[in-house]
């Protein structure tokens, strides 16, 4: 083990199941490793970061976690964002309930920071329905060994939801 690894060295070592000098951390690199906007503002106040919080996605309360915060917490990763979609497909039902991509309905209870899934378009599906073909999801990771026909099936399935 090196006495002091760079963040890159530590992440690569951890991914290769090698010994690291400390466990690599991530905050805000992805939606599932981020912090909601309200808690982010409180964290920034505690850390003395006095700049407005930029929201990357208002619907999911997904803020941009600033370098000042990441540096103070010694976070090893940094987010890289692709160009956002050209049109917002969110359909708001009321102030705290919306239908998002893929037809899933989300609701945020009063005084809670997170949205909860309350309805899904496949909720009434049977095993036979699911066995009959590709099941769309909001996120799919395409690995190196995924056959091209599976990628095309994913794209075709997505087109049925958003032509």
Strand order of the largest sheet: 3-4-5-6
Tell me, briefly, the overall form.
Answer: flat
C-alpha end-to-end distance: 52 Å
Radius of gyration: 20 Å
**What integer is the average pLDDT?**
80
H-E order: HHEEHEEEEHH
Q: How would a textbook summarize the main sheet?
A: 4 strands, antiparallel
Q: What percent strand?
A: 5-15%
Give the helix/strand class. alpha+beta
Q: What portion of residues is helical? A: 25-40%
* Oligomeric category: single chain
The tally of helices reads 5
The figure for the number of domains is 2
Features:
163 residues; alpha+beta; four-stranded antiparallel beta sheet; flat
How does this model look, in words?
The structure is a single chain. The chain is of the alpha+beta class. The protein folds into 2 domains: 7-72, no CATH class; 91-161, no CATH class. The chain has 5 helices and 6 strands, in the order ααββαββββαα. It has helices at residues 7-15, 37-47, 67-72, 127-131, 148-161, and strands at 55-57, 62-63, 91-94, 97-99, 105-107, 116-119. Strands 3-4-5-6 form a 4-stranded antiparallel beta sheet, with no helix packed on it. Strand 3 and strand 4 (97-99) form a beta hairpin. The N and C termini lie far apart (52 Å). 7% of the residues are buried.
